[in-house]
Amino acid sequence: MKKNWKIILLAVILIGVVAFYFVRKEYNRGPKDVTQAEADVVIKAVDLTTAFSDDETKANGMYLDKAIAVSGVVKSVNVDESGAYTIMLAGSSELSNVSCLLDERHNDDAKSVKVGTNITVKGFCTGVLSDVELNRCAVDK
Amino acid sequence: MKKVVFAIGLTVMSINFLMAQDKLFTKTGTINFDASADLETITASNKKATCVVDTKTGAMEFAVLMKGFEFEKALMEEHFNENYVESDTYPKATFKGKIDNLSEIKFTTDGTYTANISGDLTMHGVTKATSAKGSFTVKGGKVTGASKFKVTLSDYNISIPAVVQANINKEATIMVDVSLEPLN
Question: What DSSP element (H or E) covers A39?
Fold first, then answer.
């Protein structure tokens, strides 16, 4: 009887430790790295901006939170004061482009990007303001 | 005669120049927020806010995508989007307002100016009149703006469950930083 007690206590402690480990791991989980994910959608920048300007609600339903591989002509590469890079891919009009904010883990990707060339950027779609916005992006190599 | 033509030309050119300078904008404004409470640090950053300022009328507009707020912890980001701001239903937050003391701000003269801003803030499907103090800094023709203000979450129907009341502040501090460029 006494022996059983010890085994139960040991099992409870063990479960507790394992549970604590997983809770802590889940709590500290970092943001997804887009390069580790398969693209949910592969699309041209022009088609993506058109989808949003035609029907924003429908496009939100189709693209929000999805990992999107979008290809297009680089319009500009900018870096802000905090060191965050934005690659702009030309869309269906002068005012409607695909604005890709690089994941800081992939900031180096910006170095090889040249304005006027055709590239593919992978990122998570957050919606549309004037441009279609992708966050945590990486340049597809 | 030549002088007159030159003077007219110069006037037209400067009017053109001034008109082009009327509106300032950015698509890469930063909005940070801090809703830290005793038990937890909760901060997020959005670097893709759009902002337009009409320096002639004082009209001001902001728009930001809620899903564009980046947290260090993925779990917090998910809870923020799913349970609190419900970004699938309410993807954007906007501010439409004006600079109340526009005459005190010289957008073409170097200096730092205090701005009193008031207008409507829309978030989580709720629009509320709000006001905040901010500042504009003009340096070498470049205009930057900044503001820091508090938002009471319950005003926007964002409720905090009792279990996490010690983790999340009822008032979120919002910090806005924009470097503006002329809109042509």
Answer: none
In chain A, which ranges are continuous DSSP H helix?
Answer: 2-27, 45-54, 56-63
DSSP string, B22-84: SEEEEEEEEEEEEEE-SS---EEEEEEEEEEEETTT-EEEEEEEGGG-EESSHHHHHHIIIII
**Four-point Cα dihedral A98, A104, A106, A107, nearest 10:** 80
Residues of chain A positioned with their CB less than 8 A from the CB of B48: 86, 99, 101, 126, 129, 133, 135
| Global ipTM | 0.86
Blockwise average pLDDT, block size 10, chain B, 184 residues: 59 52 90 92 95 95 96 93 94 96 94 97 96 95 94 93 89 95 85
Beta-carbon separation of B73 and A30 below 8 A: yes
* Contact residues on chain A for B179, CB-CB shorter than 8 A: 80-81
Among the partner residues A28, A81, A135, nearest to B68 by beta-carbon distance: A135
CB atoms within 10 A of CB B145: 23
Q: Tokens in use for B21?
A: 């300078």
Helix-helix angle A56-63:A45-54, to 10 degrees: 130
Contacting residues for A4 by C-beta, under 8 A, at least 6 apart: none
